[in-house]
């Protein structure tokens, strides 16, 4: 067992603290990764604070992991010592259900093993990327192309794939009108990726405060949802709306912005339920859907796409002792657009 430095949540209401955790010995197909950078996702906060259900404490969050392979098991063929690699939201799945066989491990029927807060194959609760090292089976480790720096690559392992997957699935591309609700950690990646796919991109945000950023990142248009005129001007405009916010929205108002056969897709996951009037769907054969991260194959595809188009996250790099401050700023929407932790700053308690 390898003992490594980490930061952990010890209760739903307490700040994270430095700690030490143990990583399992390498099995034949395992990869030991020296973590260089770990992104801070809103999901980390939701999970640690019990918004989505009880958590097992102590809990080390983090599922946006970029690092270097430090050691491999005897049977590993996909990765070698020194490789630049990443780990996202999953570290295992059943491998046998129909969804897994199709490369959609995020929809594993028995349930996949999450990077933190799940029970792994060894019977232990998984601990995530707010740490110096992690051990992951090779099939759930992806290659980070040389064209992306590791610090800006880390958020791609969640924010990148979470937005790439629905954009690809619902056919974002030339001739398509795509709207992105919210310009945060997920939203800014959606704008970059949709633009690179060739779609005409509109940001729908509460205010025009980030308008200049949105246009710089690739948006063609930017509208404030706090202005009632926005919902009149944009009626029946979009083929696809990707909702990235983790708070309730007026679903009916947004559905009315869809053209015939358009889709509103949720990737943000608010703790509160949302409702809709079914007539908002009937009038235009509209769809209301959800999308959750992406499979391992698609995650690699996304990374290759981002490298080809020069896409990385917009980040604020922080030391580990600023994690609690960063969490509060995430809750206040005070980050442009993703905090990334320098794993070299994890220290012993």
From TrEMBL:
Q: Which GO terms describe its molecular function?
A: oxidoreductase activity
Entry annotated with the keyword NAD: no
* Record's catalysed reaction(s): a primary alcohol + NADP(+) = an aldehyde + NADPH + H(+)
Gene3D superfamilies assigned:
Medium-chain alcohol dehydrogenases, catalytic domain, NAD(P)-binding Rossmann-like Domain
Top enzyme class: oxidoreductase
Q: What sequence ranges are listed for the domain Enoyl reductase (ER)?
A: 11-341
Q: What is its EC number?
A: 1.1.1.2
The cofactors named for this UniProt entry are:
Zn(2+)
Q: Which UniProt keywords apply?
A: Metal-binding, Oxidoreductase, Zinc
Query: From which domain of life does this come?
Result: Bacteria
Q: Does the keyword Cytoplasm apply?
A: no
Q: Which Pfam families match?
A: ADH_N, ADH_zinc_N
Instruction: Name the protein family.
Output: Belongs to the zinc-containing alcohol dehydrogenase family.
Instruction: Enumerate the PANTHER family for this protein.
Output: ALDEHYDE REDUCTASE
Which protein, by its recorded name, is this? alcohol dehydrogenase (NADP(+))
What species does this protein belong to? Conexibacter stalactiti
């Amino acid at each position: 067992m390898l003992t490594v430095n980490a930061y952990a949540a010890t209760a739903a209401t307490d700040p994270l603290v430095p700690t030490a955790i143990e990583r399992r010995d390498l099995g034949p197909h395992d990869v030991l990764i020296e973590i260089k950078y770990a992104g801070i996702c809103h999901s980390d906060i939701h999970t640690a604070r019990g918004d989505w259900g009880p958590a097992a404490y102590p809990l080390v969050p983090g599922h946006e992991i970029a690092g270097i392979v430090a050691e491999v098991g005897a049977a590993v063929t996909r990765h070698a010592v020194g490789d630049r690699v990443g780990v996202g939201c999953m570290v295992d799945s059943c491998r046998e259900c129909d969804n897994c066989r199709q490369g959609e491990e995020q929809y594993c029927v028995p349930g996949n093993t999450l990077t933190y807060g799940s029970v792994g194959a060894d019977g232990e609760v998984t601990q995530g990327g707010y740490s110096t090292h992690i051990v992951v089976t090779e099939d759930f480790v992806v290659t980070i192309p040389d064209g992306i720096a590791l610090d800006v690559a880390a958020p791609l392992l969640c924010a990148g794939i979470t937005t790439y997957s629905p954009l690809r699935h619902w056919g974002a591309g030339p001739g398509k009108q795509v709207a992105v609700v919210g310009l945060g950690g997920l939203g800014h990646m959606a704008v970059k990726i949709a633009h690179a796919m060739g779609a005409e991109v509109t940001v729908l945000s509460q205010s025009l405060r980030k308008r200049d950023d949105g246009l710089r990142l690739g948006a063609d248009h930017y509208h404030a949802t706090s202005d009632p005129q926005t919902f009149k001007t944009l009626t029946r405009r979009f083929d696809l709306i990707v909702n990235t916010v983790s708070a309730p929205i007026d679903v009916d108002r947004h559905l009315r912005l869809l053209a015939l056969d358009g889709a509103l897709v949720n990737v943000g996951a608010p703790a509160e339920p949302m409702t809709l009037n079914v007539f908002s769907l009937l009038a235009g054969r509209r769809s209301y859907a959800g999308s959750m991260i992406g499979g391992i194959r698609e995650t690699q595809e996304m990374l290759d796409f981002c490298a080809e188009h020069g896409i990385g996250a917009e980040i604020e790099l922080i030391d580990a002792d600023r994690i609690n401050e960063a969490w509060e700023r995430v809750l206040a929407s005070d980050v442009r657009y993703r905090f990334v932790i320098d794993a070299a700053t994890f220290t012993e308690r």
